Every structure is written in structure tokens, then in C-alpha cells.
Amino acid sequence: MFDITQLLDEIKASPYEEIVVAAPHTGVVTFADVREGTRVIGPSGTWKEKKGTLLATIERERNQKPIHAVEKGEVKEVLRHLEGTFVEAGTPLVRLRHFLSKDEVLAIILKKALHLFVAPERAKYYFAPDVDKKVKASGASSVSLHEGMDLFIMSRMKREASLAYSGPSGVIYAVYFQHNENVDAGQPLIGVCPPDQLSLIEDVVARVQTEWEERE
């Protein structure tokens, strides 16, 4: 088991994520009225249909495309020297500092504490029928896993194949994939907790819930 105290102290020392907002395509940049220290909001709504704070617009072939903040936080840097210039796709425009929430901190810690079973290739993943029934009836944590167990159906280009679990025995503690969405190769599908570490993981969760201070 990793050192939870050390990891939590490291996150507390830098309790944020740096986000670079880049030009989505070529065009001429015009920045919105944002500057260093400006507080911004990210997308909101059930389907993230409400856009975040406007950061800039980029004009291409007389069409202007707005560029919005992707997370809440504050502006760290606006690359003002690019104002009115033609930029290439991928050119950094604004740097944001997003302060981590309890859920995000917990996700970081759990991804280090749990055994991550990852997608072997880009595809859509579904629990195998027997596993799916159990998940829907009693939740993912009710599923006990062992080496070689049929766990997923992998769907790619209208072809389906079974995917067996490989890793330590345990229960599903976290699910990282969404129904009917593609998962890139190497991305985690589930996080598995061995039975002898379950109480330690629960202690980690409780500690983060009580110790982490949210920042607006």
C-alpha cells in the first residue's frame, strides 16, 4: 500500500491542475476581457450544454469560433502578444489554474491505490451479461473478480469479443467507462480493490472527505 499521508501532503502543496487552452484550428485570435487572476467557470448543465467563460474567439474564413474555459478556476496567463495574429492549431492561448475538488483528489488517490484494469484497444466496452445483471441489481462493488473471469464485451467496428479479467482477485471499487462511449487504449475501465485492502481504502476516502478544503 502506498503512503497516503505523503501523497495527500503533495497534493495539498500543489492543490491545482494547470490547463492550457489552445487554438482548436488555424485563424486570427481576439481575446475576451480576461486577464491574470480573472475567475472563470467551466461548462455546466446536465449535458454540459452551458458553455464556460468566454476566453477568446478565433476567426477562420470569416467565421468566428468562440473558445471557452473547460474548467472553473482562475486565469494564470493570457498570451496577449498573439492578439490579432494568425495562429496554428494547437497554439497555447490561455493558461488556467483549476483548483482540485474533493472528488478529483479522491480520484487521483484511488487511481494510485487500486489495481487498474485498462482497455487493450480503442473500443466500446460493456460488462459481460452475468456481471451486468449483478451490477444493475446490487452495484459494481458486489462483483468479485478473479483471474481469467469473463468480464467485458469489447465492441469495435461492429465486431464483438469477450475480454477476460487479469489481475489480483478483489471487488470492483471504481468504474471509469461510460455506456456506449469509446475508451482509448490504455485508459482504465475499472479499479479493483483486493479484499485485504478494502478497509484501508475506506479510511483513505474518509480522510479526504474530512481533510480536503474546497476552493471556489
Automatic annotation (TrEMBL):
InterPro entries: Single_hybrid_motif (IPR011053)
Name of the protein: Biotin attachment protein
Organism: Nitratidesulfovibrio liaohensis
